[in-house]
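Look over this record before class:
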Amino acid sequence: MQYINQYDSPLGTITLAGDGEKLTGLWFNGQKYFGSTLLGEPSKQDLPVFRKTREWLDLYFQGIPPAFTPEICLLGSPFRQKVWEVLRQIPYGETMTYGQIAALLFPESEHKSMYARAVGGAVAHNPISIIIPCHRVTGTGGRLTGYAGGVERKSCLLHLEQLGLQKCAAHGNP
């Protein structure tokens, strides 16, 4: 059985998905690949994992790096799993480029740009936004490129981690 619930964030409504015990999805409503891990009609429930996720999000949106992570279950190919594990290692307030992730995963390869594009696809299909911090991945030179939730939100999330949410709002972001 699959379950959903919602969280009202400063950047818009977020839908949470779970299997009853673990978080399987977290998307801004309307984002690209929204609901990618949902099959059939999920039931709306308030589960312990959703309460823990809301607690995590409350801290995060207050500019406090959460010291815990809700139980998660990532569904994806072995390659995507590897990329998502690298995302989990990017520290709060810091960024990595697609190319850096590709070089980390394929240090011996001569085809870094090809792998960087593959990394980009895996990052885009991350089913648990924010907690698996795909917003911390940038293009070459720190360019803000592709984010399933929108580049404006990506910018805001990075500003939140570096300067606080008030700075994000002052820049005219959502």
The chain has six helices and six strands. Confidence is low (pLDDT under 50) at residues 170-174. The chain has two domains: 3-61, 78-170. The helical segments are 48-61, 78-89, 98-105, 112-124, 151-163, 165-170.
